[in-house]
Amino acid sequence: MSDDAERLLEFVSSVSGDAYLKVEETLGDGFVRLKVSEAERRQAKHDIRSVEDVVVELLRNARDAHAQRIFVATTRDGDERLLTVVDDGVGVPAHLHEAVFEPRVTSKLETMVVDRWGVHGRGMALFSVRSNTRIARIACSEPHKGCAVQVVADVAELPERSDQSTWPEVEPDEAGGLHVVRGPHNIARRVIEFACEHPETAVYLGSAVETVATMHAVARSVLEPGDLLFCDDPAAVPIWQRPAVCADADELVEVSAAMGLEISERSAHRILSGEVPALPTVLESLTKSHSGPRQPSTPDIFRDRRSVKLAATDVAAFSAELEEAFDVLAERYYIRLKGEPKVKVLGEEIRVRFLFEKDE
Asked: What is the pLDDT of residues 341-350, one digit of tens each?
C-alpha cells in the first residue's frame, strides 16, 4: 500500500471511526458486507456467552492436544472467576504462546472435531475465549510437556450460573456409559459432561490448592524413585508433574505460580505434609459410594514443618568433605567425580547426588 493510500485510510478512519475499516462492501439501503476479520470478531463474541462456555473450550483444547489427564482449578474472587486448566498433552512451543490466541490459528490442518458442543478446529476457540475475558494466556507450555492455560473472567460482563456448588447427578445408559441426568448447568456440570463423553481421560476439578495437591500426589505415584530423588530442576519434567519434585514449600509456591495456580506458603506446607488430600477424578467422585460424610483430618499442631535452610558456607564445607570421602570409591573403581556433589534439602531429608564418569 502506498503512503498516500495509508494516509487516506487514516483520514477516513479519523473522520468515521473504525466503522469504515470493518466494511468490505456497501450494498445499499443500510446493508454492508463485513470484512472477514470483523465477521470473525463478532462470531468470537457469539461463541462464548458464559463462563461455562469458556470451560468447555479449554477442555476441548486439552482433548485435541491428546491429553490423558486434565486438571481444572477454579475459584471465585468477588466478580472475578479464575480458571486454570493444566493438561499432559502435546504442549505449545514458546514462540506460539501468543499466536494461538489469534483467529484461524490451529494445529488441526487436516481434521476438525464435531462433538456435542459443535464444531472445533476452526482456530477460533482461544481467540473467542480471549475476546470475552479479562485475561487469557498460556501460563506455561513446552512441546511434549503439556500446557497450563489461565483465564480470568469478569462475571459482571460474562455471566455464570448462580449455583456453582451443586454437582449434577449421573446415571448409566443402556451401553453402560455415564451421562448427566439432572443438575444446574454450572461449571461442574460442564466438566462432568466432558468427562462422561471421554471416560478414557482422567479429569479433576477443584480449587487451586486441591489441584496442586492432586498433581503432587498423582505424579509421585507414577514417577520413578530416581526421578524424585535426583531431579534438581522441576522444569525438566512435564508441567503437571512439577509439584512432585519441589524440594520445599518456597519452590512449590514458585512452581505453582508459574502454572497460573496461586497458593500460599502455608498451603504449600500442608500439601507437602500430606494434609491436603488428592482429588478423585470427577467421575470417581460421582460413582464412588460413601458410607457417610467425610471426616476432616485432625492436623498435628505440634509438628514442626519449617524448611531447613542451609547456609552457603556450610553447604560448601560439607561438599568439600564429601569430595574427600568420594576419593575412596574413585580409587577402587576407577571413576572420577564430575563437578561438586549436589546437596539438596527435601522435607526432613538431606539428599546428596554424585555425578561421575569412568576413567579411560
From this structure: 887 766 566 7
